[in-house]
Amino acid sequence: MKAPTPSFVDFFAGSGLVTQGAKHACVPVWSNDICPKKAAIYQANHGDGHFHLGSIEQVRGTEIPMGDIVWASFPCQDLSLAGKMGGLAASRSGLFWEWLRVLDEMPEKPAVIALENVVGLLSANGGEDFRLLYQALRERSYKVGPMLLDARHWVPQSRPRVFVVAVQDHLDTSHLEDNGPNWLHPEPVRKAIAPLDDIVFWSMPRPRKRAKSLTDLIDWDAPVFEKARADALFSIIAPSHRELLDKLPRKQRAVFPGYRRTRHGKQVLELRFDDLSGCLRTAEGGSSRQFLLLHDQSGWSARLITPREAALLMGAPRTYKLSTSYNESYNAMGDAVVVPVVKHLVDHLFLPICRASQLAVPQLVANKWPSMMAS
Ligand SMILES: C[S@@+](CC[C@H](N)C(=O)[O-])C[C@H]1O[C@@H](n2cnc3c(N)ncnc32)[C@H](O)[C@@H]1O
User: Fold this and answer.
1) Dist. CA 242 → ligand 1 center (Å)
2) Domain identity same for 38 and 131
3) How far is Cα 317 from Cα 291, in angstroms, rounded to an integer?
4) Which atom of ligand 1 is found nearest the CA of 42?
5) Which residues pair with 359 in a beta bridge?
6) How far is CA 73 from the centre of its chain?
7) How far away, in angstroms, is 309 Cα from ligand 1 center?
8) Tens digit of pLDDT per residue, the chain (375 long)?
9) Both 193 and 237 in a single domain?
10) How far is the CA of 12 from the centre of ligand 1 (A)?
11) Is the whole-model pTM more than 0.85?
12) What residues are in contact with ligand 1 under a 6 Å CB criterion?
């Protein structure tokens, strides 16, 4: 008999990359976000039947159809090093507590919960914030296992993120656990969990070798800066990086991504030389956009990364619909979750858990929200 398809709820869904990573195997039944621009991208790709535009503060858990799997990528600004690190007590990352209120109001609890955020979640307030999050889930009878996954294993982008996967205590998941830390639990995870009891060490296979390099994803025909703008950018390359660039063998295609930063009061362009993009982020809050220095047979050129390149770096399919505005597309990709990372979790952890617990899309959803089932 074919296994029933789990239902999927995507809180803080943004432009829909989490749903994209889950929908090959799950039915998206509900999702939300406060940002109308990201909502437009979400709906263009996944339909508008199950998307709720508005603040989590106005959401009532009783209105949400039952989700076997619930995902929440709550805002990261107060947990990222670039932010002020106010942690889970601050207004944006503190929306975690609003999400928890909604979970408490949901009449049927999900089998699987996945929380995603920046690595700062593990260390904010000396680890106290992570302990509070862990405790909140334990008090609700979930076993809890954090992991750190860097998207570079799937796409040519350095993007380490924390994924906390919580599963209802009574479900037997022993076949998906290790006795101690594995590749999913590098030092920042080990440090965060050291004072905690009952941590679950989830086990997943390593991904296969990444198929594409950054050079492969580049649109070599995209328009580049005119000479004066390119020269201005080349003139602020960090001196040690300039030396490395000058030593490069010529006549080959190569790409060097970089961000402009202020060092000792001066603007410098800091480059990467490992054929990986730096972590994409939103330009909101003043962080700069990623530049690309390109080298081919005709010499050097420079430009901003294109929105399509950003989407490919997030593992979105080439057909994923973006906005016609550069900024809207770039910002939407900058705080999204990398699609094949979500897919890896779905395929190797969430589905086996759902299968083991014989979960189905409940009849309640099919009867009460037929439009959601159709979209
Ligand atoms: C880390 S991003 C999640 C991105 C999303 N998972 C994706 O893959 O595109 C956090 C999201 O929370 C949304 N957000 C911020 N405040 C919110 C609120 N009060 N209610 C609902 N969503 C909110 C932001 O618009 C943003 O899209």
Assistant:
1) 38
2) yes
3) 22
4) 9
5) none
6) 7
7) 22
8) 566 899 999 999 999 999 999 999 999 999 999 999 999 999 999 998 999 999 999 999 999 999 999 999 988 777 676 545 677 766 676 799 999 999 999 999 999 999 999 999 999 888 889 999 999 999 999 999 999 999 999 999 999 999 999 999 999 999 999 999 999 999 999 999 999 989 999 999 999 999 889 999 999 999 999 999 999 999 999 999 999 888 877 667 889 999 998 888 899 999 999 999 999 988 765 567 899 999 988 889 999 999 999 999 999 999 999 999 999 999 999 999 999 999 999 999 999 999 877 643 444 444 444 454 444
9) no
10) 4
11) yes
12) 12-15, 17-18, 32-35, 38, 55-57, 73, 75-76, 95, 335-337
Q: Domain span at residue 47?
A: 7-208+332-374
Determine the distance separating the centroid of ligand 1 and the alpha carbon of 76, expressed in angstroms.
9
Domain membership flag for residue 326: no
- Determine which residue's CA is closest to atom 10 belonging to ligand 1: 75
Place of tokens 């590749």: 183
Question: Are 248 and 295 in contact, with CB atoms under 8 Å apart?
Answer: yes
Residue whose structure tokens are 């190797």: 348
CB 345 within 8 A of CB 204: yes
Q: Are residues 243 and 183 in the same domain?
A: no
Residue with CA nearest ligand 1 atom 8: 336
Angle at 14 between CA 200 and CA 27, to 5 degrees: 65
Angstrom distance (rounded) from CA 244 to CA 240: 7
User: Are residues 63 and 151 located together in one domain of the fold?
Assistant: yes
Indicate which CATH number applies to the domain containing 353.
3.40.50.150
Domain count, the chain: 2
Tell how far the Cα of 11 is from the centroid of ligand 1, in angstroms.
8
In degrees and rounded to multiples of 5, residue 348 shows phi and psi of -100, -10
Name the residue with the closest Cα to ligand 1, atom 12: 12
CA of 13 to the centre of ligand 1 (A): 6
Q: Does the residue 321 lie in any domain?
A: no
Residue nearest to atom 11 of ligand 1 (CA): 12
Query: Do residues 113 and 151 share a domain?
Result: yes
